[in-house]
Amino acid sequence: MKIGLVQQNNTADRADNRTRLRAGIRKAASEGAELVVLQELHNGLYFCQVEDTACFDQAEPIPGPSTEEFGALARELGVVLVLSLFERRAPGLYHNTAVVLEKDGTIAGKYRKMHIPDDPAYYEKFYFTPGDLGFEPIDTSVGRLGVLVCWDQWYPEAARLMAMRGAELLIYPTAIGWESSDTEEEKWRQLDAWVTVQRGHAVANGLPVITVNRTGHEADPSGQTNGIQFWGNSFVAGPQGELLTVFPNDAEEVRVVEVDKKRSENVRRWWPFFRDRRIDAFEGLTKRFLND
Hints:
Elements lengths: L1 E6 L6 H17 L4 E3 L27 H13 L2 E11 L2 E9 L5 E6 L5 E2 L2 E2 L14 E3 L2 E5 L8 H9 L4 E6 L2 E3 L4 H22 L3 E5 L1 E4 L9 E4 L3 E3 L5 E4 L6 E6 L3 H9 L22
Parallel strand pairs: 1-2, 2-3, 9-10, 10-12
Antiparallel strand pairs: 1-17, 3-4, 4-5, 6-7, 8-9, 11-14, 12-15, 13-14, 15-16
Helix pairs in contact: 3-4
């Protein structure tokens, strides 16, 4: 199975961003991609650096303009697409939503981001209601996709539940980067942790992981910080955590990677983690914290 990843540096020109995304999708398809994954909130800038009600104007319904635009492209090229959109569900109710488009341009399914961060420069709780669709894989013509979004990638429970429901791939559209005040040592610790935890999901669940992050610097509209330098580094890991490809930190790129889905079956035979899980002793995982 060939998977295309489009790592892009976005600007405030949303029309141009979409034009370049379409070009990236076309390039991936021309190189044989059957599935193409885009980064988180790919149509515009990462607006969550500030709390501004005017940003809600960027939200759109699903189905809506983006699913129509990219659905037509999916149908033309015969590829499955993973989009990441700012969903307007109802007045005052918004989600950070991944949408999977089938090869015929129809919506195969969607996933609403479950874990919502609220950190300096990542004020997502102001904009997004936590997802209510659960951790349900999306069935497509290229396989059963376990689509999650960004902050979800730090949670082993999310990956495990997708795997337990039969996901064949774990997919993470992402928007994450460095704040300039961090030391160089701290920046690289953060990046290394980000890669390591997701490779751990691949190992623990015997599944490939596809992560697509944005790149480039985006200014803080409030001027309170020096903005975010998104660290790119999109990557694909195999079911033993082996790195199949790693993108640069500071450049746009489209790349197609081949993944052998049959390998997951063999890895799970060698490392039968699902067989040996002590589900009779895991009830504490449903608690916020456990005290003696």
